[in-house]
Amino acid sequence: MSTELEQRLRGAMERFTDDVRVPPGLAARADQHRRARRARTRAVTAAGTVAVMAAGGLAVAGVTGAFGSASPRPVQTTYTAYVVRHVERALASSRVGSLLEQDRTVFAAGNSLEPVPTGLIGSAHGSGGRSFWPVSSSLNWSYRGTAKFSAFTAGGQRVFDVRMTSAHQTLSSTAVFYRNHTWWTSTPDIRLSGGNGGPSGCVRGHEIVLRKGQGNGWPGFIRSQLACGAYTVVGRQVVGGVDAIKITGASGTFVFWVNPATYLPVQMALPQQRTQFQWLSPTPANLAQLKVTVPAGFTQVQPPAVQRH
Amino acid sequence: MADDRAVTDLESFLAARGEPLLRTAVLLTGSKEAGEDLLQAGLERLLRHWSAIDGDPEGYLRRTLYNLAADGWRRQRAWRGRLRLLQNETAATAADGTTEVDTRDALIRLLVQLPPRQRAVIVARYWEQLSEAETAGVLGCSVGSVKASASRGMQRLRELSGTAPGAENDLAEGKTR
Fold first, then answer.
1. Which residues of chain B have pLDDT under 50?
2. Interface contact A26, partner B, CB < 8 A
3. Which of A219, B5, B35, B158 has its CA 20 to 30 A from that of B168?
4. ipTM surpassing 0.90, yes or no?
5. Which positions in chain B touch A28 (Cβ < 8 Å)?
């Protein structure tokens, strides 16, 4: 019936795959990717951490969720190229670099976090023996080298504030805990990246690597991931009144909605959390939100030890 | 270490059977790069269950490839309507060499346009030369479903490649449907 077509199809398949060779080390690469994913699920870092660390110019790994590697995307690279060009234009705008980031995150049930001198560590599944605090939502403020992260219970009670500042390649942090009336401050002995942190390298997993720069590094990071193919544009969607560009990783479990004018994120969705971004003018009132005040009567305690990865 | 042993065993397995599996993955995804990604994802799952797999891992890996590809296709179809929003603005970039679909053979481009189930059946039947029963086993569906998908898929390919004027031109211009 369709013998001729079947023969043509078979021939086309032969020609299409005749130079296909298994790249060396594919099994080892699969194993590395599997191990990295396993490690990340053991040490989950909240989205707020990303923003906090972005201000300090650090690389942060470990956003919840898993990217699959299968990525059939026959037409999407074209759109990616389009977006990359527009991101470059957006980066040319000096205004983007002078905006203050405010983001609100709602976490899935069971999420818990612990401030440490270099940021936050967390777990989506209980404390795991550490001194994590159950956290249902967070509010993060970030501007240039300073960020403040506030965590709340499901009832809206404040659990802790942590403020981080980077200056002269040095990081300092202060955390206040409202449930047990304690606080600590720390200047961990680590050196931050000195440069402005241009576009970061291609991230092939569910890592976010933000560096100091315009818009706290977000446009540069998104641009670099689109350019190298780690992220893909999948279309447009109205989010918070913005006709945003939707960008996802290979498996679709990690999604950004990006403002088409500024290429700053409007929303970010992970399997365990959803974050809404706002980009505000650095007015005195907004900048005041970056401050952390230790209430009278709170007891100063030793900060947790810095863990080096 | 057990994991290292599994990777070594898997490398040996790939040396013997990797190429046909990768060719299948390339046809399932429509590009070499995506095919490699798909195979790597399948290998990750294989490693995860390595100790529980009794005997030849090829069957497990083949089924995984088909299932993962079907997942990807489902997402792609859902997004296709949205992609149109950007289509006009990006038409100029369609021929810049970044498109992942190989342009050497129009039939492959037409194959990429088929719904995931039909495409998987056609790859299994006409590339892997699996019987209808074997195809049903790999895809986890009935023989009747395989027959119907194969028939509809080939009919669609006939329409696109022969009796549908301009179909290939449309594809060459990068239009989505």
1. 1, 73-104, 163-177
2. yes
3. B35
4. no
5. 7, 11
Tell whether B149 lies on the interface with A, counting CB pairs under 8 A: no
d(CA A88, CA A92): 7
Are B30 and A81 an interchain contact pair (Cβ–Cβ within 8 Å)? Answer: no
Beta strands in chain A (DSSP E): 59-60, 100-107, 112-116, 119-123, 133-134, 137-143, 146-152, 158-167, 170-177, 182-186, 208-209, 231-239, 242-249, 255-258, 265-270, 273-280, 299-300
**Rg of chain B over all Cα atoms, to the nearest angstrom:** 18
pLDDT, tens digit (0-9, with 9 covering 90-100), for A158-197: 999 999 887 776 778 899 999 999 999 988 766 555 444 4
Chain B interface, mutation test: which of A3, A8, A22, A253, most B Cβ atoms within 10 Å? A22
Q: What stretches of chain B show up as alpha helix (H) in DSSP? A: 2-29, 32-48, 58-90, 106-112, 116-122, 132-139, 143-158, 167-172
Which domains, and CATH codes, for chain A? 30-300 (2.50.20.10)
Per-residue pLDDT tens over the stretch A105-114: 898 887 888 8
pTM of the model: 0.47
CATH 1.20.140.160 fits B2-172, yes or no: yes
Which among B19, B83, B112 has the least Cβ separation from residue A20?
B19
pLDDT, tens digit, 9 for 90 and up, residues A36-86: 666 544 433 333 333 333 333 332 322 222 222 223 333 334 444 445 544
Taking the C-alpha atoms of residue B105 and residue B161, their distance in angstroms, rounded to an integer, is 11
Find the closest chain A residue to B177 by CA distance.
A75
pLDDT at B150: 92
Contact across the interface for A72 and B31, Cβ inside 8 Å: yes
CB contacts of B27 in chain A (<8 Å) are 13, 16-17
